[in-house]
Write a structure and sequence with these properties.
Blueprint lengths: L10 H6 E12 L38 H13 L3 E2 L2 E2 L1 E5 L9 E5 L5 E10 L2 E14 L3 E3 L11 E3 L6 E7 L6 H17 L12 E11 L9 E6 L2 H20 L7 E6 L4 E7 L9 E2 L6 E2 L2 H9 L5 H12 L3 H7 L3 H14 L2 H19 L10 H12 L5 H14 L3 H8 L7 H14 L1 H8 L6 H11 L6 H12 L1
Parallel strand pairs: 12-13
Antiparallel strand pairs: 1-10, 1-11, 2-6, 3-16, 4-5, 4-15, 6-7, 7-10, 8-9, 11-12, 13-14
Bound molecules: adenosine-5'-diphosphate (ADP), zinc ion (ZN) and magnesium ion.
The site of zinc ion has 8 residues, from loops.
């Protein structure tokens, strides 16, 4: 802890206060090209290779709005429950920074694309609605690179590739009261935007960025306290840690007779602290004014309806369909709709197996477990949805026992092969042929005279032992149901 920080408040003191949190989330839209020019978007491209007069901010170069970016922004707004304005306006937000060659960002100000949305979150089974104030469009700045070069102690470098990348900013109402609620809100926003294919929301690629506004007030107080804005939260974990730290800091400050200043603070993930960056007095005056090089954005009802109709299913709707159409438990439907990719995988596998419930069990159990220990995402699963479905089907028809399936599964994971291919190569088909099983039973009975006697004397529990011996003799391939039946018949 830094010297300036007061002791962390006790739980009793923390409980006297109520945190108030509002998030500003930036999402990079998944277009092929930039928002106002035709330069391609390619994460990780060599610096300054995807630039042109427009995104370099050359005088006289004129922006042209990317239609696809508008479509994706509208999809996001609709998915977040917003009303889309038929007229919105771009505005210049003026500030100087080396990675902002134009000297201004093109954003939207008092006439944003969409407003009045809401997102439903769930924390420990308690549902709550979080208001979405607005969704607006803007262009991204370039990137300053402060380290990694031989002379980074003296120089910073600038990469303009990201300049002009299409963004939406999603501003929430100050409706969250705990860091868990903020975490849940960001989770849902990400999930919803992934489902409607607005963005992959990969935080590591900067496609999802979040700033948190936090204040505290005495419980029962009506007026909000003064807020601080915390920046540099580049993971979900950091969002939660930074909020918890900042809430404690503000409470400790107030308890010791101090006052929270309205300021921008930076989260330092190495120390776990937030540090003041600039105060209100130093705050930017962006001198917003309407962008003279772009006409107002007008969206016809027909076009908006077209976009609405093309929207993929939202997570909540998909969840409801999974319980209704497939008879899944609510919990399972929740797990399987956590991401678009997982829900697509499950549906493809279920279609291949014809048995949604058992497919759900395999996806949530063995497959998820194995992916997790291999550090892989469902999109990188070596077992295709089709093959998993085939496995479940083979169990259903009795061609594969549950035990054999568990043996084959890791091999499918290793080789990416179809289950039938592995079964054929390794001779692992379940034996359901009665004649073959009868022979195994007879041999087992002949070899275990003592146990057979015990069974006949009424100690029926030894049947388990005998079945086990026969199963072993069949190398685990005998159909257990048939095996049991034949034993009972033969032993009388
Ligand atoms: P600013 O004028 O600083 O941009 P806004 O009123 O536009 O502030 O709000 C920016 C963000 O801060 C929003 O997400 C909003 O919900 C949140 N916010 C506003 N007031 C508070 C507060 N007192 N405590 C916490 N968050 C707040
Ligand atoms: Zn360009
Ligand atoms: Mg504001």
């Amino acid at each position: 802890m830094s010297a300036a920080l007061l002791d962390s408040p006790s739980a009793a003191i923390l409980a006297k206060y109520e945190p108030v949190i509002g998030l500003e989330v930036h999402v990079q839209l998944g277009t092929r090209t930039k928002i106002f020019c035709g330069c391609p978007l390619e994460f990780g491209a060599p610096p300054n290779t995807h630039v042109c007069p427009v995104c370099l901010g050359m005088p006289g170069a004129l922006p042209v709005l990317n239609r696809k970016a508008v479509e994706l922004a509208v999809k996001a707004a609709v998915a977040l429950g917003c009303q889309v304005n038929s007229l919105s306006r771009f505005a210049r937000k003026n500030y100087f920074y080396p990675d902002l060659p134009k000297g201004y960002q093109i954003s939207q100000y008092d006439e944003p694309l969409a407003e009045h949305g809401r997102v439903e979150i769930d924390v420990d089974g308690v549902a709550k609605e979080i208001g979405v104030t607005r969704v607006h469009m803007e262009d991204d700045a370039g990137k300053s690179i402060h380290d990694g070069f031989r002379d980074s102690d003296r120089y910073s470098y600038v990469d303009i590739n990201r300049s002009g990348a299409p963004l939406i900013e999603i501003v929430s109402e100050p409706d969250m009261r705990t860091s868990e609620e903020a975490y849940a809100y960001l989770t849902i926003v990400k999930q919803v935007l992934q489902f409607v294919e607005v963005s992959e929301c990969d935080m590591e690629k900067g496609q999802l960025r979040c700033d948190a506004n936090v204040s505290v007030r005495l419980r029962g107080a009506e007026k909000f306290g003064t807020k601080a804005e915390v920046k540099n939260l580049n993971s979900f974990r950091f969002l939660k840690l930074a909020l918890d730290y900042e809430i404690s800091r503000q409470i400790a400050l107030i308890e010791s007779g101090g006052r929270v200043m309205q300021e921008t603070r930076l989260y330092n993930s190495d120390t776990g602290e937030t540090v003041g960056m600039r105060s209100k007095e130093q705050a930017h005056d962006y001198r917003y004014f309407p962008e003279p090089d772009l006409v107002p954005l007008t969206l016809s009802d027909a076009w908006l309806n077209g976009v609405r109709e093309s929207m993929p299913e939202l997570p909540a709707a998909r969840r409801a369909r999974f319980t209704a159409a497939y008879g899944l438990r609510d919990y399972d439907a929740h797990v399987l709709t956590a991401t678009r990719a997982l829900s697509d995988y499950f549906e493809q596998a279920a279609a291949a197996s014809g048995d949604p419930k058992n497919t759900a069990n395999w996806v949530m159990g063995d497959l998820s477990g194995m992916l997790k220990s291999a550090g892989r995402e469902i999109t990188e699963s070596p077992i295709s949805a089709q093959h998993l479905g085939e496995l479940v089907k083979l169990i259903g028809t009795g061609e594969l026992s549950g035990k054999l399936a568990k043996e084959i599964f890791p091999r499918m994971f290793e080789t990416g092969e179809a289950p039938a291919a592995i079964m054929d190569r390794e001779g692992l088909r379940q034996i359901s042929d009665t004649g073959a099983i009868e022979r195994i039973v007879e041999e087992t009975i002949a070899a275990n005279g003592k146990q057979v006697e015990q069974y006949r004397a009424g100690k029926t529990a030894v049947l388990g032992f005998l079945v086990g011996q026969a199963m072993k003799a069949s190398r685990g391939q005998a159909n257990p149901g048939t095996l049991n039946e034949i034993f009972k018949r033969k032993l009388g």
